[in-house]
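Standup notes, structure subgroup. Blocker cleared on the beta-D-galactopyranose input:
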Amino acid sequence: MIGFSNDWEFTPNWNEEFAKGNGEAESVRLPHTVKELPLHAIDEESYQLISGYRKHFRLPEEAKGKRCFLQFDAAAHIATVYVNGKELITHRSGYTAFRAEITDVASFDGDNLVTVRLDSTENPSIPPFGYVIDYLTYGGLYRPAYLDIREQDMIEDVFVYTPDTETAVVRVSLDKKTDISDEVLISVIDSEGNIVSQESGNAGGEIRLDCPGVRPWCPEDPALYTLRAEIPGGDKQEVSFGFRTAEFRKDGFYLNGNKIFLRGLNRHQSWPYVGYAAPRSMQIEDARIAKEELGLTAVRTSHYPQSHDFIEACDRMGLLVFTEFPGWQHLGDKGWKEQVIVNLKEMIGEYRNHPSIILWGVRINESLDDDELYSETNRIAHEMDPSRNTSGVRYLEKSSLLEDVYAFNDFSHTGNNPGAKPKSEVTTDISKGFLISEHNGHMFPTKSYDNWERRQEHALRHARVLNDSLIDGEHAGCFGWCMFDYPTHRDFGSGDRMCYHGVMDPFRNPKTAAALYSSQQDERPVLEISSSMDIGDYPAGNIGNIWAFTNGDEIRLYAHDRNKGDSPENFEYVGTYESKPYDKLWHSPVRIEDPVKHSWGGKAAVWRFDAVKDGEVIASRTLGGRADLRIEAIPSSLELKEGDTWDMAAVRIRITDPLGNVYPYAQLPVKLELTGEAELIGPDIITAEGGMCGTYIRTVGKAGKAELRISSNGLESVILTFNINR
Ligand code: GAL
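Run returned:
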């Protein structure tokens, strides 16, 4: 496929003259948002436009005699596509891809004009609209577009599934213009390009390929293979896939027959300022954060199918995905439900080759029972994909269980009670799979600048639910709400229309709760302390118990007189702490009982916490030592790529002490100055909220360098230099 994301024009007000190609309009590239937005207090009306996109293009020489298609990976929310004035298609979902054949309307010699009328209003005739929604549904052609040039007789679709880890079963459908046979040749190819297995068969049926000795796809070794389908002497299509089985049983989730607990979080696909419109590198970065920083084994793409760049990254990283079609609590009329079925078919048709996807959500998130609709969604899902189980997320207990897995939003934990409800209290059929699809979230919104106690309790609530969901071996997994803070409608937010439900802030900076997740993995040492050890931030100066989030076995605590300096010999041993009450977790946080003896009027100590594993110190934190602040800047990458479309880098910015501890109350203004071949996204003066903030830069069509200076009065500036490659 050929990139089709550059050289578009945009108008926020669709009009006939624009549609005809007349007049000037803003030059844009995809992904594009119809409106750049502030960080706080977003007016959801502001992006609900009926806007227009257009692009002049010429078909390449090689297109002559072939068939041509335009593919849009996403258009939020109702898009009508015209080419050379002819209406080709109206697509009525903002979260799935669609294509329009242009062969009969395009000129193969001269200029062509494609225009898209895009309705990004909350049109009640389609999901997720019709009532309230707890997130924003930003408008735009927010994923890439492509030109696809194909043979007259072409492969329309290829689906491969693996009933066991050494067999591929392939379904191919053809779109034929002439009277050729249905024969297709299927090859399974490994990552070195070797053909592992080959079979001929007929399109329309199933073709089995034995593939002895292939590497199964699993989190530790997410081996990918290529499946090539070809019409002998004609069209060829390739898809990436993995050999794996995914099955929810009564007692949990099994990948390739091995039980794996789904330690997950929910992800919304939004970023500050650009909403949904972030390119490939940002999608991959989110998958990396989920896997490497948060140590997750699974992600739920609440509440809609997400970018293939994100899901492909999950395929490559071995992250398991629970995905679902768009919707939020509300069910509409007959026409609306017909669109639910269209959305389901589009989602499964589009995403079913991804090995990372292990479960389909075939019920509108948290909707009431509708047996007629959901019997149909289940039937279709199993027919289109015999290899995956179905589920549907509910807040209802004992609702009608038509799916294979009961996914339950367990918001029962309120601090001093069990973290999770037992399966028998929630489901009607305990022989089926069961998981927690959401917990916490609105039950305990927590900002990065909330006080230490609150951020600690936020993390502990996640710990309790996760721990208690592991107690009885009945939960297949547990997905916390949610990865990042997100903007929302007025009906839900914290006054500034934000839901502070993330374990990270919107820039992907971690709150304390992020450390609970990070500390569950064993790839790298983790140690975060839930207090700065400053008595002035606690009632009556009483810090009480604090917690270490670590994958070490125990914490050794040392303190010293702050006048003596930071060097290790000045620390005196205080005690060793190994109380790990959440013992079902991979690594319980360690409770450090009332370590601070310092009272009001006394002199504060400097504290050093050592996390010890197998007798060795694996990580250390020194708190209270230094008051001189500095700026820490963490770019997602310093290498950007211009080409088929623009690229973007995220920069996470934190105000820390010299030992790397974030100063959460350093709500300082931060100034951003960018020079060179890139552009800043969002404002150039921002505030460190909870000592943390961020920014984004985007490429502008040129190769070269860009320099970002990050400063705050009185602090030393940080300069980042980005290379923009072509
Ligand atoms: C759930 C809902 C999520 C989010 C969450 C907040 O009910 O499915 O979208 O609103 O509550 O805790």
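Discussed briefly. The radius of gyration is 27 Å.
Next: hand off to the docking folks.
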